[in-house]
Protein: Efflux transporter, RND family, MFP subunit
Amino acid sequence: MKRIGLVGLALAAILAAGIGGYWAGVRDFPVAGLREWFGVEATLAAAEPVGTGAVIYYQDPDGKPVYSATPRRTRDGRAFRTVRASEDVSFEGRPPATVEAAGQAGPRRILYYRNPMGLPDTSPMPKKDSMGMDYIPVHEGEDDNGSVVKVSLGKLQRTGVRSELAARRVVGRLVRVPGTVQLDERRISVVATRSDAFINEVANVTTGDRVTKGQMLLRLYAPDIATAGAQLLTDLKSGGRDSALGGARQRLENLGLPPEAIAEIERTRKVPLSMTWRAPRDGVVLERNVVDGMKAAPGDVLFRLADISTIWVLADVPEFDLGAVRLGAPVTIRARSLPGRTFEGRVSLIYPQVGEATRATRVRIEIANPGGVLLPNMYAEVEIGTGDAAPVVAVPDSAVIDTGTRQVVIIDRGEGRFEPREVKIGLRGEGFTEIREGIAEGDRVVVAANFLIDAESNLKAALRGLTPAEAQP
Structure:
């Protein structure tokens, strides 16, 4: 008790010395002797700026993110630090009680006071809330109908707010869908007769073989062709009129006899017993339905050939991606059976219906098939490029806050001032979003931590929406 009394007397003497005497005493007072005589730890810290304005909240003395609306102590008995309005890093970005307008000599006029806890309540005069906390003043120029949000530089640095310029660029993305290799329907041919015929000989050609245009496929005898050929020879020997000769030639052509075979009859003046049927195009034999000695009826398919130098890839594009696909769009195709190889093509047709079960639309890509390495019904991985080749105003995807019903971009107006602005978006791709309405090229938009500013903007709008008309400033 005596030691405590002596310590109290010493501290009282220091305070009684006055301001000038206090500092002189501090310089001359034997601090080490005070520790030795009274057993207390005397430390003198440099004078720190003292906060001004209303008490906003109380924070852990060690700076930990622990706060309290009322005075509080830690477990070891230390009091929480008092944080006043000038010390709070608020969305207003400046000390509410001592803000001075740039270029003005005096403080700005206080418009009204808002609830310190963010509740929709304002007051035209200073007051306290139910917990005894002072209402925070809102100064002239700080209330701009909720369109502009102010953030202090300290909070900008801590939250990592970052902005970029909206610029013109080509916005596109890849639509990746499965596909299958199919034959080009325009490059399939059928070898058949137009009259009854007897097959004398079939060439050594089987299903899967490659044939060239003009290659012999079979020899046959057709009574109707022989009769029409004999009539042509009769007209030629009798010196018939051109109309008669033309009629005989026409009958042979109607029976499917190739022009070169007709020319051979006219040259040799002889109708051969066996007519040669040749391949009408280069391609692969898909079907062989003929053998030596068989009788073929008119229209029977003897051979079916397909040219695979150019093929189709049919891809199923989901309905929600269909709007981004356009005719002529570039396409890259990869086949699982050919690792490391890619094939380039373009969208040639978007089929005019959506599959009821798959909710996908078939898209046709026409590509070259060098060497015939792509075979019908192969599985393919299709990448369709989307977007227009013309550059558009675009911002990074992270700059767009999409609520589902509207899209918002935060405009950086400098000096910690931000303006949320509703926009209309277009295509998305490669990390960028097209902006069709709302901002222009060169506008600076927030691309990181924009949720913080949007939250404050929504809070301001909510405060105005919930506050009764008579209570609004």
Notes: DSSP finds eight helices and 29 strands in the chain. The two ends are 58 Å apart (CA to CA). The CA atoms of residues 234 and 240 lie 8 Å apart.
